[in-house]
Amino acid sequence: MISRRLRLAAAALALAASSLPSAAASASPLPSGSAWSVQQDADALRDAGVTGVAVRLDTPRGTVTARSGVGDLVTRRPVPKDGYLRLGSTTKTFVATVMLQLVGEKRISLDQTVEQLLPGVVAGAGNDGRTITVRDLLRHTSGLADYIYDAFPGPSAQTYFANRWHAYEPEELIALAMRHAPAFPAGSRWAYSNTNYVLAGMIIEKITGHTWDQQVRSRILRPLGLEHTDTPGTRPFLPDPRTSNYQQFSADGPMVDTTIPYRPFDSGADGSMTGTAHDLNRFFSALAGGRLLKPAELAAMRTTVPVPPDGGEPAGTRDGLGLFINSLSCGGSYLGHGGSGFGYVVRTATTTDGRRSVGCRFKRCGTGRGR
User: Fold this and answer.
1) 289-314: per-residue pLDDT in tens?
2) Of the listed 89, 267, 272, 285, which one is catalytic?
3) Which domains does the chain have, with CATH numbers?
4) CA 313/CA 336 separation, integer angstroms
5) Residue 221 class from Cβ within 10 Å (0-12 exposed, 13-18 middle, 19+ buried)?
6) Looking at residue 217, what is its pLDDT?
7) 107, burial (CB in 10 Å: exposed 0-12, middle 13-18, buried 19+)
8) How far apart, in whole angstroms, are the C-alpha atoms of residue 178 and residue 180?
9) Cα 342 to Cα 295: distance, rounded to the nearest angstrom
C-alpha cells in the first residue's frame, strides 16, 4: 500500500487542478507560481521515497509540466517528458464510458442483472448474478470477491517472477472470484473489486459483438484523437520514451524492476490500458465536459455512493460509475480515477467542468498492488 506521506503529496498535485485562477478569455500564460507549486509537489513525492515523478497540468491558460527523480535507477537518466504510462485501473473509466454510451443507445440498462446478460457466469459459493445489476458492477457495490488475491497468491518477488507471463481469459478470472462467497448482499455496501470490470468487459462484448478494447478504440480513442493511448492486452512492453518501474515486495527488501507488467491482472478491462498524461487529461476533460456522454448518462456516472473509511481512498471520497469524486476544502470538487500496478501509480484530477486537468505518474516503493 502507498504510505500516508505519498498519498498526501499525490493529493496536493491533484488539488492543483482546482487551485489555479479561473481561466480568463485571454490566452495569457499561467502564473509562474503555478509552475513552482507543481514542481514543489513533484519534489515532495521524490523526497518521500519515489524514484521518479512526472506531472502534467492542462488549463485553458496553458500547460505546466514537472519532473523529479530519475527514469531508471541504473542509468540515472531523467524522467521523460510526457512518456508512456501504464494506466492501470484508470482503464475502468474508459470501460464505464462505453457501458454508459450503450445505456444511452438503449442497448442495455443499468438495472439489468448480470444473470440476464451473462447467464450462469456469476454463480456458486453464494454468488447470485440475479441480484447484481450493471450499476452494482460499475460502482463496486456488487459484493463480489476480487480475483487478484488468487492471481497473486503471495506478496513476494518470487511470485512476481514465477507468474508474470501468465495471462488469464476473462472467464478464468471470474472463475477464480467465484471460489469465494460475496462480501455482502449486492447494493448494500461498497468494496472495490476488479472482478466487476472483468464482467463489464464481457458484457460489452456480449451486447456489441466486439471486444471491450475494440469498442474503446472506436468510441473514444479515435473520436478524441488519442493517438498515444492503446489497449495492448497481453503485449508486455511500453513504447519509448518511458520510465522503469520498481517495487519493494517487503518493507526492507530490494528494489525489483517490474517494468514488465504482471499479466495475470494487467491484461483486461479492469486495468490494461497504456497512454500519456497528455492523452489522459484530454480524455477526462472531454468526459467531464459532456463530449462523450449524453446529459442523463453523465449524471448517472456522477451519482455516487460513499467510500467507507477503510476503502483505501482519501476521506470523503465518493464513487460513481467508473469515476471517483472528491470534495475540496475551498469548495467544489474534482473527479478522476487512479491506477496502479507493481512499481507505479497514476493519479488524475479534473475539475467538474472539464476545464482543468492534472495527471501525475510516479513509481512507488510500496509492498503490494493498489488500484
Assistant:
1) 999 999 999 999 999 999 999 999 99
2) 89
3) 4-18+30-94+215-362 (3.40.710.10), 108-208 (1.20.58)
4) 12
5) buried
6) 98
7) exposed
8) 5
9) 37
* Residue 118 DSSP SS3: coil
- What is the bridge-based pairing of β-strands 256-257 and 274-275? unpaired
CA pair distance 361, 243, nearest whole angstrom = 10
For residue 18, give the amino acid letter.
Answer: S
In this predicted structure, what is the pLDDT of residue 35? 86
What digits encode the pLDDT tens for the residues 105-140?
999 999 999 999 999 999 999 999 999 999 999 999
Give the model's pLDDT for residue 329. 78
Answer whether 205's CB lies under 8 Å from 268's CB. no
Round to whole Å and give the CA distance between 96 and 135.
10
Residues contacting residue 331 through CB under 8 Å, at least 6 positions apart: none
Distance CA 220, CA 355 (A): 19
Q: Which of 280, 295, 358, 294 is nearest to 326 (CA)?
A: 358
Q: What gap in Å lies between CA 268 and CA 313, rounded to an integer?
A: 23
Task: Reply yes or no: is the peptide bond before residue 241 cis, omega within 30 of 0.
Answer: yes
pTM of the model: 0.91
Q: According to the model, what pLDDT value does residue 23 have? A: 31
Cell of 236: 508486455
| Catalytic residue list contains 89 | yes
The 3 state secondary structure assigned to 283-309 is: HHHHHHCCCCCCHHHHHHHCCCEECCC
- Taking CB atoms within 8 Å and a gap of at least 24, the contacts of 5-11 are 5/48, 6/45, 6/48, 6/49, 6/50, 6/345, 6/362, 6/364, 7/314, 9/41, 9/44, 9/45, 9/48, 10/45, 10/345, 10/347, 10/360, 10/362, 11/314
C-alpha cell of residue 122: 456469476
At residue 310, what are phi and psi to the nearest 5 degrees?
-95, 20
CA angle 158, 180, 132 (to 5 degrees): 125
